[in-house]
Amino acid sequence: MVSSIISIKLVPLILLLSGIFILLSGCVFPGENTRPFVEIEYPTDDMVVFGITTIGGTATNPDGNESVMNVEIKINDGDWRSAQGTSQWWFNWSTYGVTNGSAVISVRVWDGVTYSAVEKITVRVDNPLDVSSGSHKWAIFVAAANFPPDNESKLGNGGLYLAENMTRYLIENGSYSTQNIYLLFDDGWIRDENGYGNPVAALQQRHHHYNITYGAAIKEEVISVLELVIRESNRYDDSEVFIWIFNHGYGDYSKKLTGGKILRSSDIFVWDDIIIDKELGYLLSSLKSKQVCIIIDACYSSGFADKTIYNLPTSFLLHSGIPQPGRVIITGASKFRLGYASTTLGPLFSLLWFEGIKTGEADGFKPSFLKTGRLPLFMVKDGKVSIEEAFYFARYELRVDRTLNEFGTMQPQINDQYPQKGLFGSMPGLMLSN
After folding, report:
1. Crossing angle for the helix pair 158-173 and 348-359, nearest 10 degrees?
2. DSSP 315
3. The domain 137-345+411-416: what is its CATH number?
4. Angle 363-368-369 from CA coordinates, rounded to 5°
5. Using CA atoms, how far apart are residues 268 and 264, in angstroms rounded to an integer?
């Protein structure tokens, strides 16, 4: 009987102590913490990165996302650095100054108690190269090929690719510095389906070999870059300026003989507007350089060179003001004819012209009748190709290459006033390469 009474009296005490144990168990005897988890979503393993690269991903914690305290990133053997965000995190990594080659990106997350396992990927750093030659040379490339809403009249991304090939040639063979080259394309974005689709990347986000300046071919930016180059090049007596513009030319396609351009100026589209030949002449009026090449590759474009067709001049009332002593002005078509382009390779005339320069095939080519180009009677080559020789080579190819017969009506035009105006004043030829 006594033992039963004692047992009954101990029940409340046991229950009390059990409650206290339960309340304090989380503090006195902590439960096991579940490790958080981190994932890198961008970049992906073995991806090529350059410039400012945004590393991003997600972090989770089985105990609750609110307990993700910090995400940390380490590049190679560097220090751990905090990223922005938690469950959705990102970190802007500048690869400039990082040696090209493999780099290991390590990421971990801290939940206040435990670090996650370290997630790692390996990327390949391939920063565009800066090249400084010390020469006083500038180049501007403008191509606005994909602005129309209908696909039929779009010109694709070929003009961009050709422009990039030409910039590479100028850097590697013409002593042009990367900081003096500007490439303006469309609205600053490249589109999928070779220009026919949707914007997929800003030009700066694409991998490119050299660190040239990219931008949009909107009229305001074109004018701004022209003014910048004029201002900078005017500081030097030995400056050289190369300008290449490609897009649709404005004309009346229903008038097959003249394009409606007999009493009209030549015009070329940029992304959001039109530039008229006289307007470009006004913009270039303050350019002092005496070594200038300007190529306008578009339909009905030779008004930019003060030419009509068959190398005949325009009326003095329609002069653009672009041709000046020290300048070579070239157009991809006459004022009355269509130009042609490949959506993947670029405009036909510029392709032939550039081929003549980079391969050396144009070495020795002469003007011939009406500047149509011919092989010299005696192949005297000096190992260099002038801008003019490349023009005569391209004209010759359009005339004699049977595969190009359907494009022979383009009739590219030239107004050569380098180094001076006149038949004998323009004999030496302007060189782009060393």
Report:
1. 20
2. P
3. 3.40.50
4. 160
5. 13
Give yes or no for a contact between 59 and 111, defined as CB atoms under 8 angstroms apart. no
Distance between CA 344 and CA 353 in Å, rounded?
Answer: 17
Rounded to whole angstroms, the Cα distance separating 407 from 421 reads: 30
Calculated CA dihedral for residues 174, 159, 266, 234, nearest 10 degrees: -30
Instruction: Specify the pTM.
Output: 0.82
Length of the chain measured in residues: 434
342-370 per-position pLDDT tens digit: 999 999 999 999 999 999 999 999 998 88
Question: Which residues, at least 6 apart from 360, have a Cβ–Cβ distance to it below 8 Å?
Answer: 381, 383, 385
Instruction: List, in order, residues 6 or more apart from 278 with CB less than 8 Å away.
Output: 265, 320, 321
Q: Assess contact for 12 and 53: CB atoms under 8 A.
A: no
Task: Concatenate the DSSP letters of all residues of 345-391 into one string.
Answer: TEEHHHHHHHHHHHHSTTTT-B--GGG--B--SS----S--BHHHHH
Architecture of the domain spanning 37-125: Sandwich (2.60)
pLDDT tens digits, 264-279: 999 999 999 999 999 9
Sequence spans of domains, the chain: 37-125, 137-345+411-416
Give the other-Cβ count within 10 Å of 434's Cβ: 10
